[in-house]
Amino acid sequence: MVDEPPVDDKIHVEVKSKRRRLPFRSIESLGHVDINLVDVVNNGRINEKYHLINSRNGTIHVEIKWSTV
């Protein structure tokens, strides 16, 4: 719970993959995206597709809801 809406904050979402090739198991970053929470707070929710930063063709679908008690 927060006292005030997080309108000045961002969520950092990073997408990673696990390689399962033996003998090494490495984690590779596929990209990331930063989402402004002011959009979530003002609209009550977001349901968007974002292009991943540092990725060739990567996209991520994100749905976030903001509700008050």
From TrEMBL:
Tell me a Gene Ontology molecular-function term this record carries: lipid binding
Give the superkingdom in one word.
Answer: Eukaryota
InterPro entries according to UniProt: C2_domain_sf (IPR035892), Synaptotagmin_plant (IPR045050)
Any one cellular-component term (Gene Ontology): endoplasmic reticulum
PANTHER family linked = EXTENDED SYNAPTOTAGMIN-RELATED, OS06G0685300 PROTEIN
* Protein name according to UniProt: Uncharacterized protein
Q: What is the lineage of its organism?
A: Eukaryota, Viridiplantae, Streptophyta, Embryophyta, Tracheophyta
